[in-house]
Amino acid sequence: MGKKVVIVGAGPGGLTAGMLLAHEGYDVQIYEKKTYIGGRNGRIELGEFKFDIGPTFLMLPKVLEDVFRFTGRSLDQYLDMKEIEPLYRLRFHGKRDFYPSRDRKHMSEQIKELFPGDEIGYERYMEKEEEKFKRVFNCLKIPYGKLIHFLRPTFLKAIPKLDLGKSLYGKLAEYFKHEEMKIAMTFQSKYLGMSPWNCPGVFTILSYIEHSGGIFHPIGGLNKISHAMAKIIEEEGGEIHLSSSIQEVIVENGKAKGVHLENGEKIMAEYVVINADFAHGMTHLVKEENRKKYTNKDLSKRDYSCSTFMLYLGLDKVYDIPHHNIIFAKDYKQNVTEIAEKKVLSDDPSFYLHNASSTDPTLAPEGKSALYILVPVPNNDSNIDWDMQKEHFRRRVLDKIKEKTELKDIEEHIVVEKVITPLDWEREYDVYKGATFNLSHKLSQMLYFRPHNKFEEFENCYIVGGGTHPGSGLPTIYESGRISANLILQDGNIGIGYQDVFEKNVKGNVGSNVST
């Protein structure tokens, strides 16, 4: 076995790093507090019903394919991937439906019928965003440990495409005139937990990614990705220790030396990779005396994403609705303002219904279905008393579902149920302030200004997950794991040959990798 690497947490970032490092001969030991693999990319089982805890959209599967390929494996050996078409159903005012598709011809025809004139803007958007995506996404595949890294050619070429000074909504307004069409192309800022009116304009690439590359679902749920990664780590000789809580990272003479487990055991290692929620990990796993930059006071003042109110319902009925459904508030901007700025609960919230049983028969018995409901809400800076509000807000959400969707009789068919509030995210899932999408993605918290993959506070420590570069969302979290693994390999003078892979592909290809 090679050098020992301790990874704190078996979430997607830690599993990605673990796969790559174990394949290169490192002794990978992952310690996970929970009884299951995947973190928020894990699974909830309620009797005979199965649900993804968090992510339900898989985009950019090429990123995942590359991670598997670097270990000498193919993705389809481990996962049965299904493309979702249409991408999703968007419902406005509780009655008007729009079914975005990555079939350009069908998409243009729909837009022409629903939002006359905007089909021209759509074609222009797809053409212009293609080049922007190629340049910007390659910037997200390299680390920014030093300010001088902004002078790399990869970043300099992307600067004209960053739309600095523009919001996501403002940039999309250059392409579309109908308000509902603008919302249909900007709601993706919810993946970052941000308002489209505040989200940086660079993130117009989010809707492009969906419309050009599609959305996918692995049979069994997105949690199956985490299980596949764990299997590969074990095939490569690594170990995953569940129900193994970390008390603290051991830091001596400015270097990470290992971890103390809650059971008193000390595990020493050459490298430590932290895959916990960033701010929670800092405030609970790293002594403040070892944090000059990320003090408790500093972390409390940073900007964080919104949170989510979750309902997981096992139903004795299958509803004939699409796989993904987004139901917008009548006044979407007001709803978003209440979440992000006023930090209050909306009387008319937008919500997302994940009806994965329409695609995947493994999630519930025949004739039954597993329905996942997500409602964006303020994080715990709001001081909302969720112990008091939980049942009231559940009632509001169910009433809105019955009012605005076909699920008029939903309550008659609930067999089992689980609720997760922002307070539960913080207390039970170790998410700082319940901010499920981590640090916000404003420009002053991105790239070099986001916590570094090679941690700044002390040596031999690396960060993966949504709280470091490149940010939240599964594809970028996989990239964080790849970047950190490659930095460790470079430190050991091994290297995986990412530069060769990058040069052999057409530059700008979604899945290509560039040396860190």
Outline the structure in words:
The protein has a seven-stranded mixed beta sheet with strand order 7-6-15-16-17-14-18. The protein has three domains: 4-81 and 219-302 and 439-504, FAD/NAD(P)-binding domain; 104-211, Guanine Nucleotide Dissociation Inhibitor, domain 1 (Orthogonal Bundle); 306-434, no CATH class. The protein contains 16 helices and 19 strands. It has helices at 12-23, 61-69, 104-114, 118-139, 153-158, 168-172, 179-186, 205-213, 223-235, 278-285, 296-301, 332-342, 386-404, 422-429, 474-491, 498-504; strands spanning 4-8, 27-31, 43-46, 49-52, 81-84, 89-92, 96-98, 215-218, 239-241, 246-252, 255-261, 266-268, 271-274, 307-315, 324-327, 351-354, 369-377, 414-420, 461-463. The protein is α/β, with parallel strands linked by helices. Helix 1 (12-23) runs parallel beside helix 15.
Distance between the termini: 25 Å
| Main pleated sheet | 7 strands, mixed
Q: Whole-number average pLDDT?
A: 93
Radius of gyration: 22 Å
The shape is globular
Category by helix and strand content: alpha/beta
User: Low-confidence spans: pLDDT under 50, at least 5 residues?
Assistant: 497-516
CATH H-level superfamily title of the largest domain: FAD/NAD(P)-binding domain
Kindly provide the name of the CATH class of the largest domain. Answer: Alpha Beta
Task: Walk across the major sheet and give the strand order.
Answer: 7-6-15-16-17-14-18
State the helix count. 16
User: Can you tell me the CATH topology of the largest domain?
Assistant: FAD/NAD(P)-binding domain
CATH architecture of the largest domain: 3-Layer(bba) Sandwich
Using DSSP, what is the number of strands? 19
For the record, the count of structural domains works out to: 3
How large is the share of residues in beta strands? 15-25%
The share of residues in helices is 25-40%
